Amino acid sequence: MANSEEHVSIAVIGAGFAGIGLGVRLRESGFEDFVILERAGDLGGTWQANTYPGCACDVPSALYSYSFAPNPEWTRRYGTQPEILDYLRTVALKFGVLRHIRYDTELHEASWDDVHGNWRISTSRGTMTADVLVSAIGPFSEAQIPELPGIENFTGTQFHSLHWDHEHDLTGERVAVIGTGASAVQFIPEIQPAVGQLTVFQRSAPWIVPRLDWATSALERSALRRMPLLGKAVRGAYFAGIEGFGLVGFVDKRFRHPYEALGRLQLRRQVRDRRLRERLTPDYMIGCKRAIFSDAYYPALTQPNVEVVTARITAVGPRSIRTDDGVQHEVDTIIWGTGFGVPPQVFDRVRGSDGRSMGELYRDRPQSYLGTTVAGFPNFFTTLGPFGAAGNQSAIYMIEAQIRYIVDALKTMRDNGLQRIEVRPEAQQAFLREMDDRSRDTVWVTGNCRSYYQTADGSANAGLYPNWSFEYARRTSRFDEDAYLTSGVRG
C-alpha cells in the first residue's frame, strides 16, 4: 500500500517576522514547496500574541521592519502592536506568503529520521515529513510565571501580559503587577489611571532611558513615499545609533557612563521623591539587562495610587501578597510581568539524530553555529538561535542576515543535489570558543546582574553575539559549505 503521508521540501515553524521574511526569500529564490506551521489562528508571532495596553516596539519602526519592504506610513516613530501586525499582514499578502501558512497547527514533535533522511513532524493537525526543518520561533513566545507559595489559593483574577484578559475590568481594583520588564514598563502607565491601587513588585530596578517618541506628520510620510533614499538614510541613522550601544556591551564597559548618566538624569527629572528614586535606581551596569525606553513609566510610579515594593514575595493568599518585611498587600488582580521562558518549551519537541532535544542541549550549554545550525541536527536551521541574537541591534536586522544564510544553504543543497547537510562539530566548537572568549569581559556577564542574557548559573553568555551586528551580517552573507558535513544526492 502506498504511503499517503504528506511530504514537503521545507517546513518552517512560526509565522512571525522570521517565518514571513523567510517565506518571502524562499519564493524569490524559486522554492515553492514549503509550508509555514503556525499554532495561532493568525500570523504575526509575538505581535499577534501580545495585545496588552500600550504594547509597542522599542526599536524605531524605520529599523524594525524588513529592508526589502520599507513602510513610509508608520504613524509614530515607534510602531504600536496593531500597526506592526498590520504591516506583517501586508507584507505576507504582497509577497505571496499567505498561501504557504497553515494556521492552528501546533508542533507536537519533530524528530530526525536517519533511515529516510528527513524530518518526521507531528502537529495538532496530523503528521508529515520534510527534507528540511527551520525553526522561526521567537525567543519570547511562551509566558513564564514563577511558582510562588500559595498562588493556587488566590481567588482573584490573574493573568500574564502575554495573555491579557481584555474582558476583565480593572477600574477601581487593587492590582498587583509582579515584574518590571519591558512589557510591564509599557502597560503600567496605561492601567494606572483606571485602577484603585497599583502595587508594583520590583525584583530589580530596570534602566530607563528617554524614548523620545512622536507622531509622524503627513508631511514626513509624504516625503518618505516620494523619496525612498530618504527612508534608507533614516534607517541607516537609526542603525548607527543603536549599533553604538555595542560600545557598552562588548567593547569597553567604560563607555557605559554616558548612557547611565542619561538614565539617572531621566530618573531625577521625573521622580522628585528621594526615597522612591532610591528604590528605582538600578544597582548594576546598564546593558547587563535589557535597557528600556520610556517617558511614561516613572511619572506613573509617582502617582498617589501607586506603591513600588522591593521586598521579596514570600506567599500569596486568597486576596493578598505577603512580603518578607511582614507586610500583607491586599489585591484583587495579579498581572504577571515576569517575562518569557528561554529557551521556549517547544525546543523540547525538536529532536536530533541522537534523540536529544534542542531544549536539552540549550539547558546544558546554549550552542549553535552562527545562531543558525546545530551539530547533531541535520537539515535543520534556526533564526535567532544561540549567539545569533544581538544586544545592540534590531532583531529584524539579525533575522534578515540569518535568512540570507539559510536560503543560500538551501540553494547550495538544490544546486549540488545534496541530501543532507550538518554543521561539523569541530566548526561549532570553534565558534563557541570564540563566543566564550569574546564574552568574558562583556557587560552581559560581568555587569553585576542576573538576566536571560546569562546561562542558568550566571557564569556565561547565554546567546548574544559579542561583536558588531554588521560583522555578523558579513560572516553570514554566504553559506560556508566547508564548515559542514554533506552527503548524498537526492534521487
UniProtKB/TrEMBL annotation:
What keywords appear on the UniProt entry?
A: FAD, Flavoprotein, Monooxygenase, Oxidoreductase
What protein name is recorded for this chain? Flavin-containing monooxygenase
Query: What InterPro entries does UniProt report for this protein, alphabetically?
Result: FAD-bind_Monooxygenase_sf, FAD/NAD-bd_sf, Flavin_mOase-like
Organism lineage reads as: Bacteria, Bacillati, Actinomycetota, Actinomycetes, Mycobacteriales
Q: Which PANTHER family match?
A: FAD_NAD(P)-BINDING DOMAIN-CONTAINING PROTEIN-RELATED (PTHR42877:SF4), L-ORNITHINE N(5)-MONOOXYGENASE-RELATED (PTHR42877)
State one molecular function term (GO).
monooxygenase activity
| Listed EC numbers | 1.14.13.-
What SUPFAM superfamilies would the database entry show? FAD/NAD(P)-binding domain
The family assignment reads:
Belongs to the FAD-binding monooxygenase family.
Pfam families linked: FMO-like
Instruction: Indicate the transmembrane segments per the record.
Output: none
